[in-house]
């Protein structure tokens, strides 16, 4: 997997609610240099799609059925050449523990826009790993 530098940043959008997937997809597509390569509705599906699509960035809802977003992020970020993971939720960051998830950032869904996407990506791509 690994992170793109010259090409578009490949993004996998993961949320169990279609409305949020569409909203996140619209933000990604409105942000220059980013492209959505796939979507998933569950933590399990996010792992399958990430293995198949090899995205650079995974936008992951925290509250997913089955394997939740925090556990899915933990699994994804343990892979060699892992994608960067940004957690999103309607909850406040202090309402869940994502400290050992390996996620590069947390962004409240209400605040998610092109500026927050770029900031999260810059943070993720400048961190070691």
Write up what this structure looks like.
- This protein is α/β, with parallel strands linked by helices.
- It has a single domain, classed as Response regulator (Rossmann fold).
- It is built from four helices and five strands; from the N terminus they run βαβαβαββα.
- Strand 3, helix 3 and strand 4 form a beta-alpha-beta unit.
- The radius of gyration is 13 Å and the shape is globular.
- The termini are close together.
- The N terminus is likely disordered.
Q: What is this entry, summarized?
A:
The chain has 4 helices and 5 strands. With 129 residues, the chain is α/β, with parallel strands linked by helices.
Provide keyphrases for this structure.
disordered N terminus, 5 strands, 129 residues, alpha/beta, five-stranded parallel sheet, 36% helix, Rossmann fold
> What's the CATH H-level homologous superfamily?
Response regulator
Strand content: 15-25%
Q: What is the helix tally? A: 4
Structural class: alpha/beta
Give the CA-based shape: globular
By CATH reckoning, the class would read Alpha Beta
Radius of gyration based on Cα positions: 13 Å
CATH-assigned fold name: Rossmann fold
Describe the biggest sheet? 5 strands, parallel
| Nearest-integer average pLDDT | 88
How far the N terminus sits from the C terminus, by CA atoms, comes to: 12 Å
CATH architectural label: 3-Layer(aba) Sandwich
């Amino acid at each position: 997997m690994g992170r793109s530098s010259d090409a578009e940043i490949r993004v996998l959008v993961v949320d169990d609610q279609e409305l949020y997937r569409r909203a996140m997809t619209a933000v990604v597509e409105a942000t220059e240099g980013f492209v959505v390569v796939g979507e998933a509705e569950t933590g399990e599906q996010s792992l399958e799609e990430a293995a198949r699509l090899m995205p650079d960035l995974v936008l992951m809802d925290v509250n997913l059925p089955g394997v939740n977003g925090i556990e899915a992020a933990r699994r994804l970020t343990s892979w060699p050449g892992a994608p960067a993971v940004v957690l999103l939720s309607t909850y406040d960051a202090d309402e869940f523990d994502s400290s050992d998830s390996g996620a590069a950032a947390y962004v409240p869904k209400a605040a998610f826009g092109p500026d927050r996407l770029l900031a999260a990506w810059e943070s993720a791509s400048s961190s070691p790993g």
